[in-house]
Structures are given as structure tokens and as C-alpha cells.
Write a structure and sequence with these properties.
Elements: E1 17-28, E2 33-45, E3 50-54, H1 61-68, E4 76-81, E5 84-85, H2 91-98, E6 101-104, H3 118-129, H4 136-142, H5 147-150, H6 160-172, E7 178-182, H7 190-207, E8 210-215, H8 218-224, E9 227-232, E10 235-241, H9 242-247, H10 252-259, H11 297-301, E11 307-310, E12 313-315
Parallel strand pairs: 3-8, 3-9, 6-7, 7-8
Antiparallel strand pairs: 1-2, 1-4, 4-5, 9-10, 10-12, 11-12
Protein name: Peptide/nickel transport system ATP-binding protein
Family: Belongs to the ABC transporter superfamily.
GO molecular function: ATP binding; ATP hydrolysis activity
Length: about 325
């Protein structure tokens, strides 16, 4: 989204995290080919808001999230945290900045060291940073765990939901400004998902957090996000407040995601079939055109640039839905 494609970004004094023209690529095989995981993504994040990022598996949302904390650094683009360019940082300067950006991962059990006790897992960050005071009990209580019974146990003694609470405590104890939640509930039972989502909402208010919430399930994302960004094959399709996105979706892909929600009243013809193309060899023009019911010749020749179609509602599509 070069040039005018960045027009949807807000004035700098309104945002905590700004991402411009982010590109993430990975080598693919021995032939010198590359996976285009993230292809020119731009967005901003206001203090105290939750930005949801949604799309099918392989759309680049997790690659974008890891690039925010420079793990690994993007091939190109800008990541500004409170005006500081993270892509220019190296060594100790980058390590110190990462304390302000913490991540919660999809599989809570595998993200915890099975040999260590919970007290040591949660308290490792403060020890490394030589932070004053012992806040382990405080953050365990904040995530709904009893320090008296949980702190001396090991991860295998807990359920998946409890392990995710431990992971959240490990992130919180470093007092981050931004928490990136990378599919934090997709590995959990539905009943446990709701508990973790409610917990994140409570913690966001209590600790004044700013969240990036990533998921493949739009039904989950819309309930916790102030704004939602829809990605497909490394590109941004649509970006809007959650309620506006659900009530007036403009991109055919967004409409398809909504139609796949069991409680959705969207007509079945908005559903799409087939698998996304390979990110090693993405289609020309619009990357969604090979699965789009509204595709025309223009879609294969010209990549759609993101443009404003409503108040805080942005779209990259040549042939949006009729209500737009």
C-alpha cells in the first residue's frame, strides 16, 4: 500500500503503534523463490484500543504480528512504537524495546517450559530485567490463578486454559504497553475461550493495555475488537470498526467470512470455495480474484489500492458489495 495507499493512517499524535508498507518474505526451497507472507501492509493502533486481525490460515496475520517485535525483522517497511523506529534497532536497544511489546501465543502448553515451576516461568522476565519487587503473586491473582496452589506447580499439571492464563501473566508482569495476542483461544475449548476473552477484556481495562488480537474466526474477533482488519494472502482487504464491518461489509472476502459464521444471516452465495493460492506465486492484480464471485478482467490487471468508503472504513476492492 504505497503512496496514497497509506492515506488511512491517522496523525502521529493519535497512535501508539504505526505500521507502514510492511513486507515479510521467507525463502521457499532451493530455487531462490520466496513466500510472500506480508505484502505492503499498513495500519495504526491507538492507545487503549483493540485491533483485530482476521483471515484464513496462511493469510499472513501471524507473520505480521511477529514482524512487529522483529522476530524476524521484516524485509522492508516501518514499525513505529510511540515514534521510535523499531526496524532500525539492534542488540540491546531492540531487546529493551521488546519489553514494551509482549506476545501471547496460540499453544499455551508448548510455549511454557515444562521443567520449570510457574513462579519461575512468570518471574523470569523481571529477574532478567532486574526489576524491583516480586509481583508474581499479584499477576497470578490478576489472571485468576491462586498463587498458593499454582505457583509451585509445573505446566503439565494445568489445563490448556490455565496454561494460557500463565502465559498472560508472564506477559503482564513486564508491564507492556502493547500485547499481541496471536490466536490465543483457537487451541482451547469453546467454553474456555469465553473465559479467556473476558479475562483479556478485564486486564485491558485494569492495566490500560493496547491489544492486537489475531484470529481466523471473525465471530471471535468482532466481540473483542474496536476495529477489525481483514487480511487475505498477505494483503489488507478491509479495515473498519467492528460493528460497521459486520453490518456493512464491502469486500467479497469479508462477506464470505461473515457468511461462514453459524449465526449469520448472510446468503449462502456469499460463501467462497477452494483453497487460497500459494503465497509463493500469488495471482496478479487482486490476490483474491481467483476465488471472488465479483471478479472482472480489471481485477487481474490492476491491484486495488486501499481507499476510504465511510467514516473510518477502508477498502481495497474494484467491485465492492452493492451496499457501497
Amino acid at each position: 500500500m504505497a503512496g496514497s495507499g497509506n492515506a488511512h493512517l491517522r496523525p502521529r499524535d493519535e497512535v501508539l503503534l504505526r505500521v507502514e508498507d510492511l513486507v515479510v518474505e521467507f525463502p521457499a526451497g532451493r530455487a531462490g523463490r520466496t513466500v510472500s507472507a506480508v505484502a505492503g501492509v499498513s495500519f495504526d493502533l491507538r492507545r487503549g484500543e483493540t485491533l483485530g486481525i482476521v483471515g484464513e490460515s496462511g493469510c499472513g496475520k501471524s507473520s505480521a504480528a511477529r514482524a512487529l517485535v522483529q522476530l524476524p525483522p521484516p524485509r522492508s517497511g516501518s514499525v513505529l512504537l510511540d515514534g521510535q523506529e523499531l526496524t532500525a534497532l539492534r542488540g540491546e536497544a531492540l531487546r529493551r524495546t521488546r519489553r514494551r511489546l509482549q506476545m501471547i501465543f496460540q499453544d499455551p502448553i508448548s510455549s511454557l517450559n515444562p521443567r520449570r515451576r510457574v513462579r519461575d516461568i512468570v518471574g523470569e522476565g523481571p529477574r532478567v530485567w532486574q526489576l524491583p519487587g516480586d509481583r508474581v503473586d499479584e499477576v497470578l491473582e490478576a489472571v485468576g490463578l491462586d498463587p498458593g496452589t499454582a505457583a509451585e506447580r509445573r505446566p503439565h499439571e494445568f489445563s490448556g486454559g490455565q496454561c494460557q492464563r500463565i502465559s498472560i501473566a508472564r506477559a503482564l508482569i513486564l508491564e507492556p504497553e502493547v500485547v499481541i495476542c496471536d490466536e490465543p483461544v483457537s487451541a482451547l475449548d469453546v467454553s474456555v475461550q469465553a473465559q479467556i476473552l473476558n479475562l483479556l477484556e478485564d486486564l485491558k481495562a485494569r492495566y490500560r493495555l493496547t491489544l492486537v488480537f489475531i484470529a481466523h474466526d471473525l465471530a471471535v474477533v468482532k466481540n473483542v475488537s474496536d476495529r477489525v482488519m481483514v487480511m487475505y494472502l498477505g494483503k489488507v482487504c478491509e479495515l473498519a470498526p467492528g460493528g460497521d464491518l459486520i453490518s456493512r461489509p464491502a469486500h467479497p472476502y469479508t462477506r464470505a467470512l461473515i457468511a461462514s459464521i453459524p449465526s449469520s444471516a448472510r446468503p449462502a452465495e456469499t460463501l467462497i470455495t477452494g483453497e487460497p493460492p500459494s503465497p509463493v506465486d500469488p495471482p496478479s492484480g487482486c490476490r483474491f480474484r481467483t476465488r471472488c464471485p465479483r471478479a472482472t478482467d480489471r481485477c487481474s490487471l490492476e491491484e486495488p489500492q486501499i481507499r476510504q468508503i465511510g467514516e473510518d472504513h477502508w477498502l481495497a476492492c474494484h467491485n465492492p458489495a452493492p451496499n457501497h
